[in-house]
Design brief:
By secondary structure, the chain is an all-alpha fold. The chain contains 21 helices and two strands.
Length: 509
C-alpha cells in the first residue's frame, strides 16, 4: 500500500522525526521498501553538502532522491550558479526511470516507481529548502477590507475592463485560485459534477504553485487573466445558449492550466538547445504538450475526477489537451483558415459537439492573446511584461553565445514595434474573424481598444523617433539622416518586423 505524506519545512540544523516520510508536491513512493535496494555497508554513512545522514533513514532517501534529479542542462555549458537563469540548470526531466542502484528485485517491483515528477517550480522550492534558503510562504489571511473589495470585484468578473492586476493585489497573489473557484461555483459545476471541495481547492492551489512567479509574463496572473477572458467569451449569446456544462468545465480548466509550468522561454529556444522536452515531443507544440501533461498530472494526483467513470475521465483529459494544444501560435494559420471556411460557408452547427469544441478552441486562442484588446492601461502593462520576458531570453542567448531569437534582442526592438507587429499579423486577423462569428458589443469594444492601442504605440514610437533625431549631432550627413528617418518610418508603419520575422513559438501566450 502506498502512503503519501507532506514534508514540512524544517530547519536543517534540527533532526527530522522518523515518522515524517518523504513527499514534496509531485513525488510519492512506497513506504514499505527502499527505493535504492539493499544498502551498501560502505555507504551507510554519507554526506551530501552540509547534510549528514544514514541511508536507511527514509527522509534521507528523499533528500538523496532530490539530489539525484539535479541533472545538467543539455545546452552544452554549465551556467553560473549565482546569476544564470534557473531553468538552464534543469531539463524538466521526468522521473520515468527508477532511481538508485537497487537489486534486480527492486527493479521489478512496480510499487517502487516514482509516480509523478517534481514540476520545475517544485524542484526550485525543494532545492532552495535543501540549501537552507527559507521559502517565502504567502500569507493567505487578509484584512477584511481586502476580502470585501475582492468579493466586490468578483461580482463584476464578466466585465471586459476587469483589472486582474488589482484583483491579484487584493487576493495577495491568489487571483487564479479565487477567480477560478468562483467561476466554477457560479456555474454550479462543483455540485453538478459532485467535485470534492478539498480536492478542488488542492488542485487549484497546486496549479497556481506550478506557474513560475519569476516569469514577467507567463505566470499565474496571466492564467487568471485568460480565465476571466474565457468566461467573457463563453457568456456571449452564441455560446451561452449552446455550451453544455461539460464544455464550460473544460473551458475554464483549460484556461487556468493552458501555460502550466511555463519556463519563460519559447519553443525555438528549447529546440536549439536540444532540450529534453523538445526531444520528448519531437519539436512539435513542445510547450503546449508540456502544459497539458502537467495539468493531467495534477488532475490525477489530486483525484479530482477519480469519482467519474474511467472512460469519462480519460475523455475529459483528452479534450482538455485538445483545447490547450490549440494555443500553439505556430498553428495559428491552420485554425484561422478553418474558422474562415466555416464562417464563409455558414455551416457552424452549435448542436454538434465537435463544432462546439472547435469554437471553444477559438475562444481560448482569443483569450490567450487578448491583451491588445484590453483598455490601454491594462494592455500597456501586459505589453511591457511580455517584452521583458522576450528580452530576458535574448540576454541569456547572448550570454551563452547562442543565436538571439527574433524579437528577443533589446538593442534591436522596442515594446512598441513588437506590439504593432503582433497586432498587425496575429491579433487583428484572429479577432476580425471572431467578430464575424459573434458580432456583439464585446467584439466591437475589443476591436475598438485594439485600434486605439495600436495608434498609441505608433504615437509613442514617433515621439521616440523625434527625440532621437534631436539628440543626433548636427554634423551628421544629410544622407545618413534621411536613411535614419526612412528606417524609423518603416518601423512605425510595419511594427519594425515582418510576419516572416515572427518566430514559431514566440508568443504572448
Amino acid at each position: 500500500m502506498e502512503v503519501c505524506y507532506q514534508l514540512p519545512v524544517l530547519p536543517l540544523d534540527r533532526p527530522v522525526p522518523k515518522h515524517v516520510l518523504s513527499r514534496r508536491g509531485a513525488i510519492s513512493f512506497s513506504s514499505s521498501s527502499s527505493l535504492f535496494g539493499a544498502p551498501d555497508p560502505r555507504q551507510l554513512s554519507q554526506r551530501r553538502g552540509a547534510i549528514s545522514y544514514d541511508s536507511s533513514d527514509q527522509t534521507a532517501l528523499y533528500i538523496r532522491m532530490l539530489g539525484d534529479v539535479r541533472v545538467r542542462s543539455q545546452v552544452g555549458f554549465e551556467p553560473e550558479r549565482s546569476s544564470s537563469h534557473p531553468y538552464l540548470c534543469i531539463d524538466f526531466r521526468t522521473l520515468h526511470t527508477r532511481l538508485g542502484c537497487g537489486s534486480t528485485s527492486a527493479s521489478s517491483d512496480p510499487e517502487r516507481r516514482v509516480h509523478r515528477l517534481l514540476s520545475f517550480q517544485r524542484y526550485l522550492h525543494s532545492s532552495r529548502m535543501l540549501r537552507g534558503i527559507p521559502q517565502q510562504i504567502p500569507l493567505h489571511i487578509l484584512d477584511e477590507d481586502y476580502n470585501g473589495q475582492a468579493r466586490c470585484m468578483l461580482e463584476k468578473v464578466g466585465t471586459w475592463n476587469f483589472d486582474i492586476f488589482l484583483f491579484e493585489r487584493l487576493t495577495n497573489g491568489n487571483s487564479l485560485i479565487n477567480l477560478t473557484f468562483h467561476l466554477l461555483n457560479q456555474y454550479g459545476l462543483v455540485e453538478l459534477f459532485q467535485l470534492d471541495m478539498v480536492k478542488l481547492w488542492r488542485f487549484l492551489v497546486m496549479v497556481q504553485e506550478d506557474y513560475h512567479s519569476d516569469n514577467p509574463y507567463h505566470n499565474a496572473t496571466h492564467a487568471a487573466d485568460v480565465t476571466q477572458a474565457m468566461y467573457c467569451y463563453m457568456r456571449e449569446p452564441m455560446l451561452a445558449k449552446s455550451l453544455t456544462s461539460c464544455d464550460i468545465l473544460l473551458g475554464l480548466l483549460a484556461a487556468a492550466t493552458h501555460d502550466l509550468d511555463h519556463p519563460g522561454v519559447n519553443q525555438p529556444f528549447l529546440i536549439k538547445t536540444d532540450h529534453y522536452l523538445a526531444t520528448l515531443y519531437r519539436n512539435t507544440s513542445v510547450l503546449e504538450n508540456h502544459h497539458w501533461k502537467s495539468a493531467v498530472g495534477l488532475l490525477r494526483e489530486t483525484g479530482l475526477f477519480s469519482h467519474l467513470p474511467a472512460e469519462d475521465s480519460l475523455n475529459m483529459e483528452r479534450e482538455l489537451g485538445s483545447l490547450i494544444l490549440a494555443t500553439d501560435i505556430s498553428r495559428q494559420n491552420d485554425y484561422l483558415s478553418r474558422f474562415r471556411r466555416h464562417l464563409d460557408q455558414d455551416n457552424l452547427c452549435l448542436s454538434n459537439a465537435s463544432h462546439r469544441h472547435f469554437l471553444l478552441q477559438m475562444a481560448l486562442k482569443c483569450a490567450d492573446i487578448c491583451n491588445p484588446c484590453r483598455p490601454w492601461e491594462l494592455s500597456k502593462q501586459w505589453s511591457e511584461k511580455v517584452t521583458d520576458e522576450f528580452f530576458q531570453q535574448g540576454d541569456i542567448e547572448k550570454k551563452h553565445k547562442l543565436e538571439v531569437s527574433p524579437l528577443c534582442d533589446r538593442e534591436a526592438n522596442t515594446v512598441g514595434n513588437i506590439q504593432i507587429a503582433f497586432m498587425t499579423y496575429v491579433a487583428e486577423p484572429l479577432f476580425t474573424e471572431w467578430a464575424r462569428f459573434s458580432d456583439t458589443r464585446l467584439s466591437q469594444t475589443m476591436m475598438g481598444h485594439m485600434v486605439l492601442n495600436k495608434a498609441s504605440w505608433v504615437g509613442l514610437l514617433q515621439q521616440q523617433t523625434s527625440v532621437s533625431e534631436e539628440a543626433e549631432p548636427s554634423t551628421a550627413g544629410s544622407g545618413d539622416a534621411a536613411a535614419a528617418r526612412r528606417d524609423s518610418n518603416t518601423a512605425t508603419t510595419a511594427g519594425g518586423t515582418s510576419s516572416k520575422d515572427i518566430p514559431q513559438g514566440s508568443r504572448e501566450s
